[in-house]
């Protein structure tokens, strides 16, 4: 098999593949920079640096952003169990999810749910 055709030619290709992977798998609680580095056969440090430079946001910040956006979408669609929302967005720990959600939206998930139900 000729791997040359399948191998990324430059950083942009690698980054595009990484972003596509994160965009597709962000709901997976096992998705971490370490796991991505293993999947793509690059060091965590290299991927982290490249991601930050090219995307102007850190890997974990990007991952959390996707997860919180999805959480807001689920709430907007009527889901109202914080634990279910947390798990559906890739968080194993509803408390950590709540802290991350509040940091991103300035509301706890419960406050966000109540606000959505009032409007």
Could you explain how this protein is built, in words?
This protein has 119 residues and is mainly α. The chain has seven helices and no strands. The longest helix has 18 residues, at 59-76. 18% of the residues are buried. Mean pLDDT is 91; it is low at 1-8.
Topology, please?
Layout: H1 11-25, H2 33-40, H3 44-55, H4 59-76, H5 82-88, H6 94-105, H7 109-118
Which key terms come to mind for this protein?
119 residues; mainly alpha; disordered N terminus
The total count of helices amounts to 7
> How much beta, percentage-wise?
under 5%
Secondary-structure element sequence?
HHHHHHH
* Average pLDDT for all residues: 91
Distance between the termini: 58 Å
Summarize the structure.
The protein is mostly helical and 119 residues long. Helices cover 69% and strands 0% of the residues.
